[in-house]
Amino acid sequence: METKWLSKLAGPATKWINWLVNDAKEWANWLADPTVAYFIYLGLLLPFVREDTRRVVIVIGIPFAFSAAYLWHRAHLAGLLPTNWFPPSRTIESERFLLKDANGKTRAVLTVTESGAGLDFFDTSGAARASMGLMGDMPGLTLSDKQGAPTVQLSALADKPHIVFYDARYQLRAMLDVLPEGPRLELYDRDGNSRAKLTVLEDGAHFRLFDATGSPVYSAP
Fold it and tell me: What is the rounded CA–CA span in Å between residue 167 and residue 98?
């Protein structure tokens, strides 16, 4: 009789063992779930009740806790339960963030200092190609060449737009801004000397040319 009873249990027991072995990873994740751990804790705590009911609790309580934990886990995987009981924090605090590509190269850096905040973008060779930030109360944007030398800078000086252009030697070659009296365009030679200036004022447009020493050579009107 006992042999028949054991043979009947052999089939289900084998399937149960195979299931445990094949799903070992899932079981590991299941046991690591805080909710599952809580149910297991309840199951282990149940034997410490009154001695006259201990056998009943051991036989029924622990299997019930494991079964409930498993059903809870399967419902969680099926999307029937919320992924987080407490809303996740949407705020990350730091003074510096680095973004790297698949090769481990830094491609972007967000930095906050006492003087302001800035976001820098880098190319595959590590040169800074674009930067935007806030220095004090002045926002700015800088575009650079492959060597990392600035070529264009856009800023707001005293809340007035200001754009400057540089050559390959980082020499100022052109400037465009808006003054209280009107817009201004100024061009410079390779030595940084102002050679031409165009302004538009309330009384009309004004154009001037200068020599290398800064002396006017032509003006209109």
Answer: 30
Burial 38-65 (b: 16+ CB within 10 A, else e): ebbeebeebeeeeeeeeeebeeebbeeb
Calculate helix-pair angle for 34-45, 24-32, nearest 10 degrees: 80
| CB-count burial class (<10 Å; 0-12, 13-18, 19+) for 208 | middle
> What is the average per-residue pLDDT within 57-86?
65
User: Do residues 127 and 143 touch, judged by C-beta distance below 8 A?
Assistant: no
Q: Does the pLDDT of residue 63 top 90, yes or no?
A: no
Q: Supply the pTM of this predicted model.
A: 0.57
Q: How far apart are CA 15 and CA 12, in angstroms?
A: 5
Q: How many CB atoms lie within 10 A of CB 188?
A: 20
Asked if 134 and 145 count as a contact pair (C-beta separation under 8 A), the reply is no
- Indicate the residue type of 221: P
Report how far residue 208's alpha carbon sits from residue 138's, in angstroms, rounded to the nearest whole number: 30
What is the rounded distance in angstroms from the CA atom of residue 43 to the CA atom of residue 202? Answer: 87
User: Which residue is associated with the tokens 């800088």?
Assistant: 142
Widest CA span of the chain, in angstroms? 121
pLDDT of residue 199 exceeding 50, the answer is yes
Question: In the chain, what percentage of residues exceed pLDDT 90?
Answer: 44
Band of the pLDDT at 141, cuts 50, 70, 90? very high
**CA proximity to 172, closest of 156, 194, 141, 140:** 194
